Amino acid sequence: xxxxxxxxxxxxxxxxxxxxxxxxxxxxxxxxxxxxxxxxxxxxxxxxxxxxxxxxxxxxxxxxxxxxxxxxxxxxxxxxxxxxxxxxxxxxxxxxxxxx
Length: 100
Description:
By secondary structure, the chain is mostly helical. The chain has helices at 2-15, 19-30, 36-55, 64-90.
């Protein structure tokens, strides 16, 4: 499940590449082709899709300061939980199997 969720963002980042479309537009302009309008429409669609992806990103509605505060809170929670884990491990309450 985790691998599938990691593969999805990589695919989306590939889909946002605008350079091939811009290259196609320039080639059409060099050839005085009528396909320029079609290629421009593709570019416009791709830009709109990128805007939608950006607006759907988690945390996009938070300010950078809010994001930093949330990050600091989460880092403190991780530190606290790691300390608790170490404390419980040192109490020998659990039989931790040794890796072979």
